[in-house]
Design brief:
alpha+beta; two-stranded antiparallel ribbon; Chalcone isomerase; 33% strand; 5 helices; globular
Length: 169
């Protein structure tokens, strides 16, 4: 499958586990295509509950496709999404959000980079940049549910993206 001229691979291997392309879409902001968001999972995910709450090994993959992207802009976007997604729990998770922001900014995320937000059945949340692990949170279940919920929840960032991520190929 190709989006924005970029071939999406049907399978990736993170955490020594093969996970498969479940769906993908382009995220745009102010008419600028900013990133491709893909859902990869060990088994097909067709509904929001499995995409958010299950113990299925899965990853949200962001491929940065705008030359305007900076690590600061990416981290601020994730922080804003987390704040919306966590609601009143945001302040209890603020240290984790700040950690994630720092890791993204220090890693220098930019144009053409790939970020994977990866969840394991054991409740660990991992962050990869270009398939190299840059962050691990052993108690990442709530954090993962919030991030996956930003795209797959009842009030996603974009309903068309949710549908594309869950539709399968």
């Amino acid at each position: 499958m190709k989006l924005a001229g970029i071939e999406l691979v049907p399978k990736i291997n993170l955490n020594k586990v093969d996970i498969f392309l479940n769906g993908a879409a382009i995220r745009s902001k102010f008419f600028i295509q900013t990133y491709i968001i893909s859902l990869y999972a060990a088994t097909p995910v067709r509904d929001e509950k499995n995409g958010i709450e299950s113990n299925i090994e899965r990853s949200l993959r962001m491929q940065i496709i705008t030359p305007l992207a900076t690590s600061k802009a990416v981290s601020e976007n994730i922080q804003a999404g987390m704040k919306d997604g966590l609601g009143s729990l945001y302040f209890k998770q603020r240290d984790l959000v700040d950690d994630l922001r720092k890791v993204i900014e220090q890693s220098g995320v930019q144009y053409k980079d790939i970020i994977d937000i990866y969840y394991t059945p054991e409740g660990t949340l991992k962050l990869y940049k270009n398939e190299t692990e840059i962050y691990t949170n052993e108690n990442g279940k709530l954090f993962a549910e919030t991030i996956f919920g930003m795209y797959l929840g009842k009030n996603p960032k974009d309903k068309k993206i949710k549908e594309a991520l869950l539709k399968g190929f």
